[in-house]
Specification:
- With 101 residues, the protein is an all-alpha fold.
- The chain has a domain of 54 residues.
- It contains 5 helices and no strands.
- The longest helix has 16 residues.
Length: 101
């Protein structure tokens, strides 16, 4: 469903079973996928139901584990050079591949 969402195509077309028109089942799958995506925390990637014992989850379903993302580290290092005040407002830092030399 993630690919169908990205390309804006019905699931039946993706599987080769449809003619490109959205069926009732395609629409139901798209709505279910949207509901699922909205239930996922943007920060940690888990869903509240995974933690909620009343919904079959477990309060200790995951264990926190530190790891280093070098890309995030480089962004944070660059962020230290952004000036405070009006000059730095709205300034974003992204990553791009280094050009071959």
């Amino acid at each position: 469903m993630e690919l169908c969402h990205a390309y804006g195509i019905p699931h039946s077309q993706f599987t080769g079973a449809g003619d490109g028109r959205w069926t009732a089942l395609d629409r139901a799958k798209a709505i279910a996928y949207l509901a699922y995506r909205r239930s996922v925390c943007e920060t940690c990637g888990t869903r509240a139901a995974e933690w909620d014992e009343d919904q079959g989850g477990d309060r200790f379903a995951y264990v926190a584990e530190p790891y280093r993302c070098v890309g995030c580290e480089v962004i944070e290092m660059e962020r230290e050079h952004i000036p405070d005040g009006p000059e730095g407002r709205g300034l974003k830092i992204g990553l791009r591949p280094r050009e071959a030399s």
